[in-house]
Automatic annotation (TrEMBL):
UniProt-listed PANTHER family: 4-HYDROXYBENZOATE SOLANESYLTRANSFERASE, PROTOHEME IX FARNESYLTRANSFERASE, MITOCHONDRIAL
UniProt entry keywords in alphabetical sequence: Cell membrane, Heme biosynthesis, Membrane, Transferase, Transmembrane, Transmembrane helix
NCBIfam families assigned: cyoE_ctaB (TIGR01473), PRK04375.1-2 (NF003349)
EC number: 2.5.1.141
Protein name, as recorded: Protoheme IX farnesyltransferase
Cellular compartment(s): Cell membrane
Known pathway: Porphyrin-containing compound metabolism; heme O biosynthesis; heme O from protoheme: step 1/1
Length: 305
């Protein structure tokens, strides 16, 4: 006997219907968690006050907007994701979610997050959130990613906006301090992703994505990683130098920057050693997390030093 589900499956031509878990995976939750964290720190550090409910709403909008960006990225990149070992099991290329469902989900979340941010918080934060989504989807995903090895350098701006959005949610403005938080993430992004690309370059080569190791080779990639690391390390200390933070952050940022440069030097020195690149990739995640943690700690402790 044919069941109701069998009939639905025959009509739709599908043997699987999306679950909540499938839709959740479209939001790139691991990436979203880091975005939400940096956005929340920006909100917390901003001068002024905001009602806790509005603060939660602002962070929720950042999370939904980030997830929507990831969803639209997965929709557009489904063709190459299906041919890369690292991404083949994502919801769209694996068939758990159709491209149309992913597109509709992403657009709905994008519009909802921006409109809610505008109505509940302020237009500056909403405009920055809209810019973030559009930059990630149109500039990075659709334009840069498949055309230039500088895709990560320019496209990385999308992931650097959340602290500015959080700051603007409280103040309604963009300040030097929020731009500095943006800059730290912006200069962190290239060495982070190029370290990843060093041990996944065959995937990118197979699908024709011009990541730096594919186009310019491993030697140039290692050199660029070291250059950006040397720029990032002192930049991370600037909040202390301009009086934005105290010595707790300044000392911590100095040590974290030194560790980053040492590991980048190892990547440069050890040539094709994959383990060094993996080590830098993991350290880069720890670096960004700890930089923003120490911003919080320094702010809470206040004038201890």
């Amino acid at each position: 006997m044919t069941t109701k589900m069998d009939n639905a499956t025959l009509v739709s031509g599908r043997d699987h219907f999306p679950t909540a878990s499938d839709y959740w995976s479209l939001l790139k939750p691991r990436v979203m968690s880091l975005v939400v964290f940096t956005g929340a720190v920006g909100l917390y550090l901003a001068p002024g006050t905001i009602h806790p409910i509005l603060a939660f709403t602002a962070i929720l909008c950042i999370a939904v907007g980030a997830g929507a960006s990831g969803c639209l990225n997965m929709w557009y990149d489904a063709d190459i994701d299906a041919r890369m070992k690292r991404t083949i099991n994502r919801a769209v290329p694996s068939g758990r979610v159709t491209p149309g469902e992913a597109l509709g989900f992403g657009i709905t979340l994008s519009v909802a997050s921006v409109v809610l941010m505008w109505l509940a918080i302020n237009w500056v934060a909403a405009a920055l959130l809209a810019l973030t989504i559009c930059f990630y989807v149109f500039v990075y995903t659709m334009w840069l990613k498949r055309r230039t090895p500088q895709n990560i350098v320019i496209g990385g701006a999308a992931g650097a906006f959340p602290p500015m959005i959080g700051w603007a949610a409280v103040t309604g403005t963009v300040s030097l301090e929020s731009v500095l938080l943006f800059a730290i993430i912006f200069f962190w992004t290239p060495p982070h992703f190029w370290a990843l690309s060093l041990f996944t370059s065959e995937d990118y080569k197979a699908v024709g994505v011009p990541m730096l190791p594919v186009v310019s080779g491993e030697r140039e990639t290692r050199k660029q990683i070291l250059i950006y690391s040397l720029l990032l390390a002192p930049l991370g200390v600037v909040p202390w130098m301009i009086g934005m933070t105290g010595a707790i952050y300044g000392i911590s940022a100095s040590l974290l920057g030194l560790a980053f440069v040492v590991q980048a030097w190892r990547v440069w020195r050890e040539r094709v050693e994959v383990q060094a690149a993996r080590g830098l990739f993991k350290l880069s995640l720890l670096y960004l997390f700890m930089i923003f943690i120490m911003l919080l700690v320094d702010h809470v402790v206040g004038g201890f030093f």
